[in-house]
Amino acid sequence: MIDVRSLRNSPSEYYSSAEKRGFGREEIDGFFRLDEEWRSLVRNLNALRKQRNDFSAEIGKIVKSGGDPEETKKKVKSVNDEISKLEARQKEVEKERDQFLSLIPNILHESVPVASGDENNKFVRFSGTARVFKEDLENFRSLTEGNGIFELIEKRPESHVDVIQRLNIADLERAAKISGARFYFLKNRLVKLELALINYAIDFLSQRGFTAVSPPFMMKYEPLSRTTDIDTFREALYKIEDDDLYMIATSEHPIGAMLMDEILDPHELPIRVAGISPCFRREAGAHGKDTKGIFRVHNFYKVEQFIFCRPEESWDFHEEITKNTEDLIRSLEIPYRVVNVCSGELSRLNSKKYDIEAWFPSQGTFREVASSSNNTDYQARSLNIRYRTPDGNRYVHTLNNTGLATTRMMVCIIENFQTDQGTIRIPEALIPYTGFEEIT
Questions:
Q1: What residues does 400 pair with on adjacent strands?
Q2: What is the residue-wise DSSP string for 152-187?
Q3: Element (DSSP H or E) covering residue 178
Q4: What share of the chain has pLDDT > 70, as a percent?
Q5: What pLDDT, in 10s, does the model give residues 74-129?
Q6: Which end of the chain is more exposed for a tag (fewer CB within 10 A), N or C?
Q7: Same domain, yes or no, for 184 and 69?
């Protein structure tokens, strides 16, 4: 939720930011229409309360002088009735106004490219050495703006879908039989690879000052709606029938809500949290996309970075958490690029977001494996998370970033580390965690 005072003082800034995202004027117009009525009601109520106080003082004087105060008491009753009526209307207007307020998006950071469509995300940098099939070279050069380092290969690597069946390390058909599409059984060394990735990511972030937290896997609607853009996210959520509970789609949501309605001491900040959890997503809007394999699935494990910090520190922390994920992916020897996500592809919460996209050689393109977002104080206002200052309580800033999502990272490894013998080499950093050097 945005700052009401800031909106009132600088409406043009919010109209401009919403327009850059491709939003209309309806939400902001609706807010101002109701806000004017709300402020008028406040003025009228204050006048009536003053009038009531004056009448009460007059009653005291009448009684003291031995007169009859009944006529003045009737006036007080009439004023009280009018106050009750206006207070009820004020609550109605405030509720409707705040609904419009919740739909107004965060202010865009000045560096966000103004456009819509993922193809218009701005290339930032590339890292690693990509194995590029000769027919994909032109696309690779275009996507890295000529800055990508590559090794040209004559044969396209196998799809991870074919590899996991050939090596007997996952069973998709039996999973579909009992659960439906986009579910899977992991088997044999792929199970150990997933556990290795989780433990490696936890250790990696712990060494950088993050506290590991395993949150509840279900949330009530009220804290969930305060944590995310619920109208946009709702179709991704699994609802528990007959209970006010939803399966979490990311540990960002319970970790963000963990400090809901709290006032922090400034010495507690920054708070760095590494959330480890399964994630459950309906993928309702992804029909026909990645229906085979384990790239886009209904449940997976993720290690998430989350930071609560002072406002003046948040842009430095945005770069920090992005670097953390880049360093982690680089340590796994996976080539990737970073893009600055354009305005039309951001959620209402995001002021700015980077996507980290790994190279998938069998697909001949980059695919998103992590996102790094600065939500400034937008999320904290909804959650009412503040910290003390000499000048009064201020809202914290919140940031989140995927440290590592297991299924997509396993696909990365399967596609990038195929050997001539048909096995999958394990990145050197993971060998102490897997206990083996290849999947055969």
A1: 306, 373
A2: EESSPPPPHHHHHHHTT-EEHHHHHHHH-TT--EE-
A3: helix 172-179
A4: 98
A5: 888 999 999 999 999 999 999 999 989 989 999 999 999 999 999 999 999 999 99
A6: C
A7: no
State whether 170 and 219 are in the same domain.
yes
The CA distance from 140 to 145, in Å, is 8
Q: Half-sphere exposure of residue 127, counting CA atoms within 13 Å on the CB side?
A: 18
C-alpha distances (whole Å) from 320 to each of 120, 347, 378, 401, 439 are: 24, 21, 20, 10, 33
CA dist 21 and 18 (Å) reads 5
For residue 7, give the 3-state DSSP assignment: helix
In a shared domain, residues 339 and 384: yes
Asked, for residue 109, whether it belongs to a domain, the answer is: no
Q: What is the pTM of this model?
A: 0.90
Strand, coil or helix: 394: strand
DSSP state of 423: -
The rounded distance, in Å, linking the Cα atoms of 14 and 107 is 7
CB 359, CB 383: distance < 8 Å: no
Determine contact, residues 38/90, Cβ cutoff 8 Å.
yes
Distance separating alpha carbons of residues 129 and 140, to the nearest angstrom: 12
Q: For tokens 């990696």, what's the residue?
A: 204
Residue type, 117: G
Cβ distance 348 to 105 under 8 Å? yes
Q: How many residues make up the chain in this entry? A: 440
**Residue 67 is part of which domain span?**
4-103
Give the pair of three-digit tokens for residue 355. Answer: 């996507």
Query: What is the separation of C-alpha 345 from the centre of its chain, rounded to a whole number of angstroms?
Result: 13
Tokens of 192: 């150990």
Q: What does the pLDDT read at residue 283? A: 80
Cβ atoms of 263 and 132 closer than 8 Å: no
- How crowded is residue 404: how many other Cβ atoms within 10 Å of its Cβ? 26
